[in-house]
Amino acid sequence: MKTKIFLNLAVKDLNKAVSFYNELGFPTNRQFTNEKGACIVIDENIFVMLLVEEFYKTFTKKELCDPKKSSEALVAISVDTREQVDEMMEKAVKAGGTDYLQSQDYGWMYQKTFLDVDGHHWEVFHMDESQIPDNPNEM
């Protein structure tokens, strides 16, 4: 079995969150979706589990942070082209997300950042691995 990644995010309004990710082009796996949570398919082995806050709390003893005020994680997703970076950002803003930081263009990597409807931080990027400099930290 291949390794799969399930990113679990606490959400205030499940329907609004599901609609946001569906508008980005990510389908819902109905087999793992109910009134407590929804499974969003990012790729064959990558999933976002949107869990209503009360249900999310059953998996942790820690307090939930408010992702609109605090950073919990920076989630980055790659796409095949620079145009797809721009398209994803346009879809995110149209679906109710926020264009969060100035885009970055390093030549070999192009990146834009948005916040979803709950304030979770997403970076969308295209990287041309054939153009990565010998020391990418010296940009």
TrEMBL record:
Query: One Pfam family, short name please?
Result: Glyoxalase
Residue ranges of domain VOC in the record: 3-127
Keyword list (alphabetical) reads: Lyase
Q: Name one GO molecular function term.
A: lyase activity
Q: What is this protein called?
A: Putative lactoylglutathione lyase
* UniProt organism field: Flavobacterium nitrogenifigens
